[in-house]
Amino acid sequence: MRFDIEDVNHASRSWGDLAADGARIYVWPFKGSASDTSRQSPPADLLRHEIGHDLFIRYLVPSTKSEQYGGDAPDWLDEVAAIAFEGETLRAGRRRAAVRLAKQAKLIPLQKFLTMNHPEMEARPIPTSSGEALQAFEPGSEDTPRFYAMASAFYEYLVARTGSPAIVAELAAAFGRREPLDQWIVERAGRGGGVQALDADFKAWIALEPLYGGARADEGGL
């Protein structure tokens, strides 16, 4: 997948435009460049996240409806796809947040996580699938940090349980076939007993997985 990244302060094109050679263009405020001081620029680490959102919608599950968070996929899957693009700095922070939430028994139950709307859509209308989405990086809901920590941990859990680094593409294909994703996940992960048993296994995995069990839960999260 080819794409170009241009400084938003010097670009004549918009987020997601196509270059002459067919490459997708993503505009972003470069570090050290002049910027609009009336707005806080998004953290650079979020660039990969936003590109993940865009590519998922363009090539796996498009958006055919208005007033929704991303594509037609469930909001959790849209977020998992973006998180799969993130670098290790963000990933490590999300792991620490998941460990902290697990110890406080505040992880979102999978039964709810797999069916809920993105907390930001409940808190306020935010523009998505365009360059304007880049200004929506500050949480508007207290549930948003939990949602992101869940999405990150659940993605890594699914990769571990299925052995498939392409699990996002598999989930998108299952969604395209109109398969119930909760049942598909239970079967694909090899965990019997339904979503409730999957939830218990997910929490047990966080407690035992070295990347999570060894994380310091008292450090900053998102």
Overview of the molecule:
It is built from ten helices and two strands; from the N terminus they run ββαααααααααα. Strands 1-2 form a two-stranded parallel ribbon. Helix 2 crosses helix 6. Helix content is 47%, strand content 5%. The longest helix has 19 residues, at 144-162.
Comma- or semicolon-separated keywords:
mainly alpha; 222 residues; 2 strands; two-stranded parallel ribbon
Write the layout of secondary structure elements.
Layout lengths: L2 E5 L16 E5 L17 H14 L15 H9 L4 H16 L6 H4 L5 H5 L20 H19 L4 H10 L4 H8 L5 H15 L1 H4 L9
Parallel strand pairs: 1-2
- Write the element-wise H/E pattern from the N-terminal end onward: EEHHHHHHHHHH
Task: Report the span from N to C terminus.
Answer: 28 Å
Proportion in helices: 40-55%
Report the total helices. 10
Work out the oligomeric state of the chains in this entry.
single chain
Largest sheet: 2 strands, parallel
* Total beta strand runs: 2
C-alpha Rg, in Å?
18 Å
Taking pLDDT < 50 over at least 5 consecutive residues as the criterion, the unreliable ranges are 126-136, 215-222
Fraction of residues in β-strands: under 5%
The largest beta-sheet arranges its strands as 1-2
Label the overall shape.
globular
In brief, what are we looking at here?
By secondary structure, the chain is mainly α. The protein has ten helices and two strands. Mean pLDDT is 83; it is low at 126-136 and 215-222.
